[in-house]
Amino acid sequence: MKIDFANLQKDYQLHKNDIDNAIQNVLNKSNYIMGDDVSLLEKELEEFSGAKYAITCSSGTDALILAMMSIDIQPGDEIITTPFTFIATAETIAFLKAKPVFVDIDEKTYNIDANKIEEKITSKTKAIIPVSLFGQIADMDKINKIAQKYNLIVIEDAAQSFGAEYKGKKSCNLSNLATTSFFPAKPLGCFGDGGAVFTNDEVLAQKIRSLRLHGQSKRYYHKFIGIGGRLDTIQAAILRVKLRYFDENIKLRNQVAEKYNKKFEGSITHPSKHKFATPPERGLEPIILPFVEEFNVSTYAQYSIRVKNRAGLQVKLKENGIPSAVHYPIPLHLQEAFEHLEYKKGDFPVAESISNEIISLPMNPYLNDKEIEFICENVLK
Ligand SMILES: *Cc1c(COP(=O)(O)O)cnc(C)c1O
Question: Is the pTM of this model over 0.85?
Fold first, then answer.
């Protein structure tokens, strides 16, 4: 059996006609930069997320840069975020010469631990960037409340969670600003790089629109220092097709996750309040399953479990043709690029221990029962 991790090929084959037509349309018009598909997509993203303004851009990384530029982040400003995320979240803070200030994560959701944020706030703190990791939104009510108390801006890094829900509200409509990514392997991916910034604030929206076009107010009149950060018309056209069946794909991803959970839970020998399965064949070594809060709907950007002997499991899966990935092996405070921040091992024990145990199994809307069974058997044996 050959199992595909994200199965982008199948997704394209299933919607080939519509996608090919959308691309051909752009070619026929040759409106490659800021064509009408870009503004139409932005309207559709606004409708989908509920956020008043969606501004597309060149990537999830540039979306973070644009969001921070729009609130005038300055050298020396401090921005609170999580050490358990993709590098871009904190890299963009440092890129703007601001300082990432890390806060450890929650043991169950792997998102920033909102209870530990307040103690890290100083007079230099300007913003909080929670990441909605693996498709589950961080605890935004608690985070927004802290931000209000200290007059801080909240930017949701929703690169993995576009389409997710928190207490009935959609990701990207839960904070002052939000950013997402349309990198091909994200739940809503295009065929290259792409991203978007979301806000309900008209002034910020206008500024972001200008910043992504070299800070121009009109052609060749530049009000701000900006960037070349547009989304290609071809990518916008592709995303408009994919947005039509995106809800269905989220549903299918959730069904796959449910099937994984059932299979693993079926072999529980030591049930516990936390969701975890202990396969008898592996003695008492638990497999910790993804935990999604009752008030959350995850997009399952990843289906990630925790095991003690990860290296062994990786080898076994590979031998059996099952792809896996580690998101993420080194928490950001221990990355060489952040040496200057002078963090050390032991500073964020939860993030560190989860980094050692986490492993992502294949996750896409098209995994069938046989494949899921095969993967679970191999994890359990
Ligand atoms: C993917 C990702 C990004 C960056 O998005 P790109 O489109 O690849 O630039 C930022 N933050 C998180 C959490 C991500 O997963």
Answer: yes
